[in-house]
Structures are given as structure tokens and as C-alpha cells.
Amino acid sequence: MIRQLRLSSGLVMLAYVTMHLLNHAVGLVSLEAMEDVLWYIFRIWSNRPAQVLLYGSFLIHYGLALWALWQRRSLRLRSSELSQIILGFAIPILLARHVVGTRIADNFLHTDTGYYAYLLWVYFVDSPGHGYWQMLVLVVAWAHAMIGLHFWLRVRPWYAHIAPAALVVAVLVPVLSLLGMIEAGLHVAALAKDPNWTREAFARMTLPSPETKRTLEAITDGLSWFFGGTVAAVLLARIARRAWRRRHGVVRIDYADGRWIEVTPGTSVLEASRIAGIPHASVCGGRGRCSTCRVRVRGERNSIDPPSADELRVLRRIGARPNIRLACMLRPRGRIEVTPLLPPLALAADGRRRVDFMQGSEREIAILFADIRGFTALAEGRLPYDVVFVLNRYFAAMGRAIESAGGRVDKFIGDGVMALFGIESSPRTACREALAAARLMSERLDELNRSLQAELDRPLRIGIGVHCGPVIVGEMGYGSAATITAIGDAVNTASRLEALTKEYECELVVSEETVARAGIDLSDHPRHEIEIRGKREMLAVTTIKRAADLPAPGAVLIRHSEPAETATPVAAAPP
Predict the structure, then answer these.
(1) Per-residue confidence at 560, pLDDT binned at 50, 70, 90?
(2) How many domains does the chain have?
(3) Residue 91, Cβ neighbours under 10 Å: how many?
(4) Considering the domain boundaries, does residue 355 fall inside one?
(5) What is the DSSP string of 113-135?
(6) Is the pLDDT of residue 480 over 60?
(7) In this structure, is residue 562 part of a structural domain?
(8) What are phi and psi of 326, to 5 degrees?
(9) At what angle do helices 128-153 and 2-25 cross, to 10 degrees?
(10) What are 52-95's pLDDT values in tens digits?
């Protein structure tokens, strides 16, 4: 409920601020246009239900912000999270003068300034310092809102696609608002040079008297001290709470790498990591949404409370076992040992991956191996810089081809690459993606050879092996070197097929099982039966001279004996 209230109240205030800033931007057209647009906006927000919604949202949002500050056991946060907190608490202090001079003055002290003409005269003629202050609060309020909106949306799968356009909008709105305000303000300053304009404009207004101005100043000072004082009170209360709890015992949290920290009860594991300076993933900022802070926990039963309903919903979504918890929600009461399951720089997409991928599970996937032919001879006599330059260009081209087809680059081994397909999809989709990747890699290699024509004595050639089968997929390794990879007989077979490209003098060797799963017809290409070390049965494979000769997307011949599901063409992104 608290999360929904914070989000809903924030969105209400964001709607108000957005309309306000866009109204400022109309100043690029004219002062009269600003006043006309304001008339409609005023009609929306001046009725009693809208005012109750707006002011209620502010009180709820501010109260929940104070509560969140109290709940945090550590203020060692990422710069973006700390910036949002500081900007958020600065808004009411910076905005107090503007609100008092407009809403309170008009509603309770019976002034009537007509709004834009008078305010711009104050900001650009009478008190330019107040104008700079108002521009500052405009940027602060918008920045706070955009950071919060980013934290909320970045765990959504579709957000990455719209993020560049959203960033343009996030920057453009305040820039246009400031430009509109400055343009209209300069126009008012030019008009104010004529005493007749000032006299006529102010004659239609009920301006605050000197006594009213003193009252408004007193109210402004009081509100500023109130908002600043509430934050200071919470910070002092946090210090007192920490001292009191440390006198009544601490909780020890051990990490798998041998590090440990003692914290006061009620501190979350994520906060403990930040206090200890231990890097810990948390895309959503510790709000229990992204699951990137997930940890494996060991400890006595009475040292860990059961997960809340919100945490349990996220844990079920990622297929977590009972010993997996969210570090941001876990507040141990006794000694525990934790092991983060994702690297510190994990992305939102990593949080959507199910835990069983990390812990190890048997899956049927497609594996692709690729290697540069004759690279040792190619590297002889070249400077190390030149070798590294060519290799990095090659790896970039091959990596993009694999990812474009839907695969995952598992590792680069010397001048070779291993890729996995179908970790989160069906075996048939995996085989189609692997063959699509082989085709793209061949095409990208041709492009690379043309671009490196002046650097190379002869063009690069590659050998590709593709096979599918059951493997064990999980996170393997240690520390920062731990990655999701696959082990099993199918991996060894794919590596063996890649080595056979030398023997058959071709670019691609693919097992017939993979071809059948993909549902494509390669009967025009040579077929062989080979013996795989350690296996009794022969393995049927197909050799393709150039992987680029594989059927293009949309032109795939489907085997009629395959079930209807295989009737989807090989899926590959365009080069």
C-alpha cells in the first residue's frame, strides 16, 4: 500500500508540474499565449476535488519520503539515489516562496495579481534574485521526478526500447520551459520600461500591501524552517536509534568471500553491503522490484523472518528456492551467511532471469563454436597492437551477429567464440537462432574483410560448428569471473564439429539433429556420418561451404514431416 501511495501521489504531482512547465514553454510564442493556456490549466486544478487531490498527494508523498528516510539504516547510496532524496527534500523549501506568493496570498490574503504578467515583472524587474530561485526550483523538481520515474520504469522489459526517446523528452521539457519563461520575462521587462504600461497593468490587480508582504515573508520563513526542521529531526532520530540499538546487540552478516559486517537489527542485507562497501547489485534502488539483489542465505531458522507478500511475489516470479531471498527485503535478526547471485553491475534484464538458471538446471539448447582459421600464421610478424586491433574488430562483429540472432556470447577463447542459444526458449527456437547466427557471422565476416583489406595480407576465414542437445546450464566460476555457462556432452560435440571444418574445408558443420529441429531443408549440401570420441553411434552432419548460403529469413523450406510448430522460418535480425 505504501508503495502504491508513493507512486500514485508522485504521478499526480508530476502531471501538475508537467502542465506547468509546458505552460511556461508557451512563452516562446507570446505572453498572451501563456495567459490563455493558463486559463485552461487553472480550470483543471482550481476545482475543489482537484485541489484536494493535489495537496493531498503532496502531503502523502512528503510524509512517505520522511518515513522512507527513517526506515533506511544507511545513507550510503548510489549517486542517483542520493540525488533523488536530496532534491526531493529541497523542493518544498525552494518552492515555499512561490506557493506563498501565489496560492496563499490569493486564497487567504485577498490579493489578485493576474499571475504571469505580475510574476514575470517580479522575477525580471523588481527582484531578479527571486527569478533565479524560481528557475532553480523548476530544474530541481523536474530532475527529482525524472529520477523517480526512471527508477520505476527501468525494470520493465520495454523500457530499454524507449529510454533514448524518453531521455530527449526529459531534457527538452525543462529547457523549453526555461526558454519560454526567459523570453516572456524579457518581454515584460521591455514593456515595464514604459511607466504607462506598468500603471495600466497593475491597475487591474489587487497587489499585496506592505503589511501583507511582511506576513507573506513570515509565512515563507516559517514553512522553510518547518520543512528543513522535519528532515533534520528525522536524521537526528536515526542517530539516536542507531546508538540505542547498538547498545542492545548487533547482527553479524558473513559473505561468501570471507568478508563480514556487524549491523544493528533491522538493517537489510543490501544496506549492510553498502555500509561495508561491498558491491551489490540493485537496479531498482532497493525497492523490491527488480530482484537483482537476490542472495543465497544460510543461517538458523530463528535468525530470518519469512518473506513478506511483496517479496514472495517476486521470488515466485523468478522461481526461487526457499534459501533465496531479496537482499533489500531481508532484515536478519541473527547471524547469517549470504552469497549474492548476480554481479554488482547486473542489469534489469538479469533480474528477470529465473534463479534455476543460476543454480544449475538441465536444458536442451543449441551451442555454437567459431574459430579463425590460420590466425597463428596471420599474427606472425605483426605488432601486438595490430593483432589486438584485428581481434577486437572480429570479436565485435561476431558478438553483434550472435546477439542479433537471439544468442548469448558465452566466452571468447583465444581467437574463438562460444555462444549459447535457447537458454530461455524452446530447443526448436534455439536451433533456428543458432543457424541464423551462423549466417549472420559469415556475412559480417565478409564486411569485416572488406573494411580491413588494407590491414590484412589475406582475408580472415572462420570455421563454425553447431550442435544441440541436453546440457547443464548454471552460474559457474568464482567472484567476478563467475558467469552463466553450459557444460555437457553437447558442448564437446559442438566444439568437435567446429574442428571438422578444417577437414571438410568448409565454413559450417552442423549436426542433422540441429537442422531437423530448425525445420529447414539442407539436402542440397553434403551429408556425412562421423564418429565422435566416446560415443558408439555415428553422428550425421551437414557441411556448408559458406554459412552465408544458408536460407535467408522468409525463404526457408519447411520439412512437411515436422510438426506445425516448426513452420516458423529461421529468425535472424537483419545485418
Answers:
(1) very low
(2) 3
(3) 22
(4) no
(5) -TTHHHHHHIIIII-HHHHHHHH
(6) no
(7) yes
(8) -90, 125
(9) 130
(10) 999 999 999 999 999 989 888 788 888 888 899 999 999 999 99
Tell me, yes or no, whether 296 and 385 share the same domain: no
Helical spans, DSSP H, in 48-194: 48-71, 79-99, 105-108, 116-121, 128-153, 159-192
- Beta partners for 241? none
Q: Which of 327, 349, 371 is the last residue of a domain?
A: 349
Q: How many whole angstroms separate alpha carbon 455 and alpha carbon 392? A: 14
Among residues 241, 259, 291, the one where a domain terminates is 241
Distances (CA, A) of 127 to 65, 120, 172, 189: 33, 10, 27, 12
Mean pLDDT for 141-154 is 91
Q: In sequence order, what DSSP letters do the residues of 392-455 get, joined into one string?
A: HHHHHHHHHHHHHTT-EEEEEETTEEEEEE-TTS-HHHHHHHHHHHHHHHHHHHHHHHHHTTTT
Would you say residue 414 lies in a domain? yes
C-alpha cell at 180: 519560454
Could you list the residue range(s) of the whole structural domain that residue 328 is in?
A: 251-349
The answer to whether the beta carbons of residues 482 and 476 sit under 8 Å apart is yes
- Cβ 291 vs Cβ 318: under 8 Å: yes
Regarding whether 60 and 129 lie in a shared domain, the answer is yes
- Among 126, 129, 119, 91, residue whose Cα is nearest residue 181: 119
pTM, full prediction: 0.59
Q: Say which residue the cell 513570515 belongs to.
A: 218
Contact 558, 508 (CB under 8 A): no
Whole-angstrom distance, CA of residue 255 vs CA of residue 274: 13
In a domain, 82, yes or no: yes
